[in-house]
Amino acid sequence: MNIHEYQAKQVLKGFGAPVAEGVPITSADQAEAAAKQLPGPLYVVKSQIHAGGRGKGKFKELPADAKGGVRLAFSIEDVVKNAKEMLGNTLVTAQTGEAGKQVNRLYIEDGADIARELYCSLLVDRQYGRVAFVVSTEGGMDIEAVAHDTPEKIQTIVIDPATGVTEADVAAINAAYGLTGDAAEDGKSLFPALYKAFVEKDMAMLEVNPLIVMENGRLRVLDAKVSFDGNALFRHEDMRALRDETEEDAKEIEASKWDLAYVSLDGNIGCMVNGAGLAMATMDIIKLYGKEPANFCDVGGGAGKEKVAAAFKIITADPNVQGILVNIFGGIMKCDVIAEGVVAAVKEVGLKVPLVVRLEGTNAELGKKILNESGLTIQAADDLDDAAQKIVAAVG
């Protein structure tokens, strides 16, 4: 689960991280009052969407030379003017794709005099099985280019879970940044605080970009991006309350209600599979034969008839889907249960696109019998290769 920047900063502030004063708004009418709550005279007007690259983004409805999704304002009048331009318009960034995201919230924040921009993130390093700090002296909007062109400028400091962030870890991070004086002193409290927030709130990723050294030599979290481990959200009702469903795909929201692993993609062949590995293989073979998957959908190993039917309905609700491939290996899950779920869903929502089903494993023959006797237009496949070729040919 992702949250907005202003929410992430409030979470980090609760752990002692230094953040600027700011006010979130949802209407341009609120902009003047929000700005008056801040010291000024420099303000920052920030689009609040679940995507990076906002500063370099462009609004669909505004001229090509218009400013991006993060703007400096040097008066309250500028704040109001920018708010009117940005709210309700669609911001396109490198991470949103061409469709972009509508800006429904802004964060009006107190400006800062920046001396240096640094990059800091925390994540679970799969190589070590531990939380790690990923740091670079090259913070700001071009961190992706740094990772691609000069990866040696990015360093990783792995944290021992038995000790947490030690003085030696802080010293290593400070050294990686080249911090001295007040900034290094701030690091002694900031870096343990970020780690504490990451662990206690079961975050999947915490990114501060940029982490700045101000002209006065102090550190400040200038931007923050946080995502949480969905499997741990039951422990954090306060974090669940921060969820903004308007930023999420409606199909993914519906899938989460059924505990389905579902991700929307850009293709036109819908996939329903049990098992993440098999789902990846299914998507790969669709691409091998020249088409693109419309989704990743793993119904899991123990799904029942109702869950399968729900998954099928979600897939068919996607207007981009021109064909559906169901690929099931019956282990814990029985193929006849899958077949019953598919038949029930088709009878309820109808079938307007080609459907190919491949069943293998427990009760596979019974499952095929259910499909064959359903009276529905369903193509059976002998194996995965056969299934992929049939659905690609059917879509044309």
TrEMBL record:
UniProt: Mg(2+) binding residues: 209, 223
Keywords: ATP-binding, Ligase, Magnesium, Metal-binding, Nucleotide-binding, Tricarboxylic acid cycle
EC number from the UniProt entry: 6.2.1.5
Pfam families for this protein: ATP-grasp_2, Ligase_CoA
Binding site for substrate: 274, 331-333
InterPro entries according to UniProt: ATP-grasp, ATP-grasp_succ-CoA_synth-type, ATP_grasp_subdomain_1, Succ-CoA_synthase_bsu_CS, SUCC_ACL_C, Succ_CoA_ligase-like_bsu, Succinyl-CoA_synth-like
Pathway the protein contributes to: Carbohydrate metabolism; tricarboxylic acid cycle; succinate from succinyl-CoA (ligase route): step 1/1; One-carbon metabolism; formaldehyde assimilation via serine pathway
Family classification: Belongs to the succinate/malate CoA ligase beta subunit family.
Protein name, per record: Succinate--CoA ligase [ADP-forming] subunit beta
Species per Swiss-Prot/TrEMBL record: Brevundimonas mediterranea
Lineage: Bacteria, Pseudomonadati, Pseudomonadota, Alphaproteobacteria, Caulobacterales
Encoding gene (name): sucC
